[in-house]
Every structure is written in structure tokens, then in C-alpha cells.
Amino acid sequence: MPRRVALLGSINVGGNRVKMADLRSAFERAGFTDVRTITASGNVLFDHDGSSDAGARIETLLTNDFGIESFAVVRTYEELARALDENPFAGSGEDKLVHTIFLESQPTTDAFAQLEVDHAGRGMERLAPGTKALHIDYVDGAGNSKLTKPFIERRLGCRGTARNVTSIRRIMETMEQ
After folding, report:
1. Which domain of life is it from (predicted)?
2. Which positions ≥6 away from 50 have C-beta within 8 Å?
3. Crossing angle of the two packed helices 165-176 and 77-86, in degrees rounded to 10
4. Which of 158, 7, 10 is CA-nearest to residue 76?
């Protein structure tokens, strides 16, 4: 079975507190195997045979077990590596400020163009489209940026969850173990 990672949105932020031991147990009860969490920010490694939509199952699990409406992006090691490779800011920007927003679907070229137009003049961030991803260099930090998750999701027409380059590399290193 291929190893996968669930990148969960809104875990341990905004009041959505979940203990990682409880999250691992919930995944195991749901039939996922070899479950492991990385940091306390909603990164869960697991094995899955691919016979069902793991993302939808995980979202249901989060709602039923923890009362959290969340979003789960499921990716393989290869998909994480591709996201890093296609991120034009990885290596040129500061790793903790360069993010990939993993998206549930591929936005249209027009939607990305609209995001760029609507963002013009709002901040120093650099943007680049990716494969079911949006790459951002939050030059001055994500915390003060006007390029927020709701702003992005409205324009792209799909949900996503962000990880910085440092986190993506840490996840990939753990997946290799």
C-alpha cells in the first residue's frame, strides 16, 4: 500500500484543538494503517489501499469524532516532491515564508489570473500556479498578509491547506523512514 499524508486544514488553530494521540486513534478506528502524526498541525501519515476516497473519509472522521468541519488533502510522497519542484520560490525565498497551498482541484487559468488582478497592490507576495496547488512567497510573513485563505479560495473556487517549504520537507523526510 502506498504511503500517503493527509494535510488537514484548520487543526489546532482557531479553537479546533485536537490531541495528536486522539487523531491517530481515530484514523486507526477508521481503518487506516501505520498511522503517524507529524507536529501538532494536522499532518497525518498513513497507509491506504486507494479503494475509497481517503480525503472524504477523513473529513467525515473529523466531523464525527471531533466536531470539526475541516478539509483534508491527501498526497503521496511523489506529489509532495512535485509540488516542491514546481515551486519557483523554493530556494529563492525564505523556507518558512514560502508556502504551497494544496488545493482540492485544479483552478482554471482565468481563476488564477483573477487572483493576481485582485491581489495587485495589496502586498509584496509573489504567486505562481501549480499542479492542484498555489505557490506563494509571503515575503513579509503570512501573519500580516492580506492574501488570506478566504480571499484565495473565493477567487480560485476551491479549498486548500497551506504548508511551508520547511514543513513539506519534514513530512517528506518522515515518509522516507
Report:
1. Bacteria
2. 1, 2
3. 150
4. 7
